[in-house]
Design brief:
about 130 residues; 4 helices; 6 strands; elongated
């Protein structure tokens, strides 16, 4: 079964792009390699292990390589929270985090929900002062 591996590698020019492509294309099991220089992203499809792809790129090119750490910003509950928002990320992407602290940011407690819905326009019978 083919696997898609996305890797973040800093590439400045066509030479860097070519060097990264050559390093990965020679690997056993690779079927396609797609390089997006502006996003600093390499997508490798084939029967490969992600850790070996990252190690091969780092060893052959001398560049720092890591698994793609970003997800589209609309997938994350709080894209502008500290630790999630990354100004180095390509446009439309934020850093992927599984930290439970960030997932609790926007959750209101039951008392907060009760007070905010008491004065809601959608619930006309909630408050007689209005």
């Amino acid at each position: 079964m083919d696997q898609t591996v996305e890797v973040k590698v800093k590439m400045d020019c066509e030479g860097c792009e070519r060097k990264v492509r050559k390093a990965v294309e020679g690997m056993k099991g690779v079927s396609t390699v797609e390089v997006e220089r502006k996003a600093n992203k390499v997508t490798v499809v084939g029967y490969v292990e992600p850790s070996k792809v990252v190690a091969r790129i780092a060893h052959r090119t001398g560049k720092k390589a890591e698994l793609w750490p970003y997800v589209p910003y609309d997938v994350v509950a709080h894209p502008y929270a500290p630790g999630v928002y990354d100004k180095k990320a390509p446009s439309g992407y934020v850093r992927n985090t599984d930290d439970p602290h960030y997932s609790q940011l926007g959750r209101a407690s039951s008392t907060e929900v009760r007070y905010t819905t008491a004065f809601s326009d959608e619930n006309p019978a909630a408050c007689v002062l209005m």
